[in-house]
Amino acid sequence: ANAATNDVCPARGGYALYTGGQEQECTRRLSLMGDLRQAIERNELLLYCQPKVDIASRRVCGTEALVRWQHPVHGMLSTMEFIKLAENAGLITPLTHWMLDAVFSQSYAWHEAGLDRALSVNLSAHDLYDPMLVDRIQCLFSTWSVSPELIQFELTESALMQEPLVALEALTRLKKLGIRLFIDDFGTGYSSLSYLQKLPVDSIKIDQSFVMPMEANNDSAVIVRSTIELGHNLDLEVVAEGVDSQAVWNLLSAVECDVAQGYLISMPMPAEQFSDWENEWVRMNTAKLTVPGQ
Ligand code: C2E
Ligand code: MG
Ligand code: MG
Ligand code: MG
User: Fold this and answer.
1) Ligand 1 pocket check for 79: Cβ under 6 Å
2) E strand spans, 178-264
3) Most C-beta atoms within 10 A of its C-beta, which of 18, 58, 78, 261?
4) ipTM of the predicted structure?
5) Is the shortest distance between the CB of 157 and ligand 1 below 6 Å?
């Protein structure tokens, strides 16, 4: 890349390198960044959520909050892509603030409708270094009078490893509010076990790259099994993400994995559809349990 290209397109934070069509790609990203800034300001993002189900009882035990961006021209954009873009463009803070507002308001609405379902919010590494984040969260709890067990946070192993001491301090402050914390994408971040043990977390989410192939690939199955054992030995709840087949569910059930999340149960859906989905899930699973002879 020449200097001019670098100016408009800083490849920070391990951003994917590109060779062909560089300028076009940079122009696209720059224009998307401007659009994202506006989308946040104009409230054009969407709150989606995906259920988490307790494997032994088949009960819904929570949902993950996932942001979506329906671009006026390009349609629904890949979340993975625009989160990276937001991280590199310094837009994560406003995005996280938008998400927190959306999640608290949804949690309040569900509570009013008689549904108390935990929502877990993904935080980026950058959020952990925002000294105002915990104050903002505390303020949202009192504004909406939402109880602390209904809002949870997910942090990837790699976000926690960027500045381990800062991360530990932020997590400790969140934990003091009574919030449940998850380590996301577990197994992909090369963190040391002694560091993990010091973190005030409640759950680990085994990354989908280990869960999805576990039926066909024995190495993945071994990794999943030993992670479950490790988690349980450390008194942590273990969630498997990317559960997209009955075969994988059965394997996880056999090794006493606690919670499953994935397309087998449901794709992420607009948050306002969640309570209908849950009613249907309960109906289906109650029917299954009462089939004679099963
Ligand atoms: P994640 O937190 O690990 O979320 C799980 C991702 O896996 C979601 O993708 C979900 O749709 C997808 N997924 C779940 N089950 C299955 C399955 O069975 N099969 C397949 N193929 N995929 C499955 P999504 O929503 O595109 O999000 C991607 C990543 O973007 C998330 O990974 C998270 O790291 C990040 N993200 C999403 N929303 C937010 C947000 O509000 N803030 C921040 N900071 N990051 C977010
Ligand atoms: Mg997550
Ligand atoms: Mg994950
Ligand atoms: Mg992931």
Assistant:
1) yes
2) 180-186, 203-206, 237-241, 259-261
3) 261
4) 0.97
5) no
Which atom of ligand 1 is least distant from the CA of 264?
A: 18
Tokens of 229: 């054992």
CB neighbourhood size of 199 (10 A): 19
Q: How far apart are CA 226 and CA 231, in angstroms?
A: 8
Q: Is 101 in the pocket of ligand 1 (CB under 6 A)?
A: no
Q: Is the CB of 66 under 6 A from ligand 1?
A: yes
DSSP letter for 145, please: T
Name residues with Cβ closer than 5 Å to ligand 4, which is an ion: 185
| Two tokens, residue 227 | 């992670």
What are 189-224's pLDDT values in tens digits?
A: 877 778 888 899 999 999 999 999 999 999 999 999
- Nearest CA-CA partner of 123 in 179, 184, 180: 184
Q: Are 272 and 63 in contact (CB under 8 A)?
A: no
